[in-house]
Amino acid sequence: MDWLYPLSGFVVGTIVGLTGVGGGSLMTPLLVLIFGIHPATAVGTDLLYAAITKAGGTAVHARKEHVDWRITGLLASGSIPASVVTIWALSFLPKQSAAVSHVISISLGIALLLTALAIVFRQQLQRYALLHAGDRTHTRFQSPTTVGVGVILGILVTVSSVGAGALGVAVLFFLYPKLPAIRIVGSDLAHAVPLTLVAGVGHWAIGGVDWTLLGSLLLGSLPGIWLGSHVSAKVPERVLRPMLASMLVLVGGKLISL
């Protein structure tokens, strides 16, 4: 077993614990750009990696009643069917081909750029939404918009493994500005588990998961997440988030230009 895989899992897990941003934003580009893993295999493996690592966090949030199951259900009602349809469409493409690699690389790059924007402008979006929280239009279309967001996240996450974390949280802050931040995070995390599990199993069914790689990444990431979560209170968010957003922009631009 290559010791660099557990080390990478540990580094990414620590960053996820520090920032709360989903591992897909970091792990999938790392596997593609540094280790030369085929994008389809990187995405499939990372989806199951995300489902396993996020399940523990969801259990904690659910126990503390930090999950709004109505919002989670609305998101899932759009994302799960969208993920299944996306997997079905991907199954018709030739495995491990240059065309598939190009499509996934472009999708991954775009998802990373959107995630970076979500990290940078999350507070501004929330402030704007709070100003319009009483508007009838805002409240009237909350539920159908949440389902629509689920559809977009389902497609994006299934193709790129990115979007269920920072992007989902940013949209929920905009749609539900009066909901406490901890319930936004808990609801988004709870939604990410079934979505990444369904998408990951779908990729496995079409031959896009490396189980040895998955085990190696988990070996490092689980202690990394534990460490990052404990250190996060001591590291200023105003320093971490701009650095992370800048890194995602650079990596996203690199993937798009491949």
Keywords, please?
258 residues, mainly alpha
Helix content: over 70%
Estimated structural class = mainly alpha
Total count of domains: 1
Enumerate the spans where pLDDT stays under 50 for 5 or more consecutive residues. Answer: none
- For the termini, the CA-CA separation is 28 Å
Q: Helix-strand pattern, N to C?
A: HHHHHHHHHHH
Shape: globular
Oligomer: single chain
Cα-atom radius of gyration: 17 Å
What does the largest sheet look like?
none
Proportion of residues in extended strands: under 5%
Number of strands: 0
Helical segment count: 11
Arithmetic mean pLDDT: 81
Explain the overall architecture.
This protein is 80% helix and 0% strand. It is mainly α. The chain has one domain. The longest helix has 34 residues, at 98-131.
List the helices and strands and how they pair.
Blueprint: H1 4-19, H2 24-33, H3 39-63, H4 69-90, H5 98-131, H6 136-140, H7 142-160, H8 166-175, H9 181-205, H10 211-231, H11 237-256
Helix pairs in contact: 1-10, 2-3, 2-11, 3-7, 3-9, 3-10, 4-7, 4-9, 5-8, 5-11, 7-8, 8-9
Question: What's the short version?
Answer:
This protein has 258 residues and is mainly alpha-helical. The protein has eleven helices and no strands.
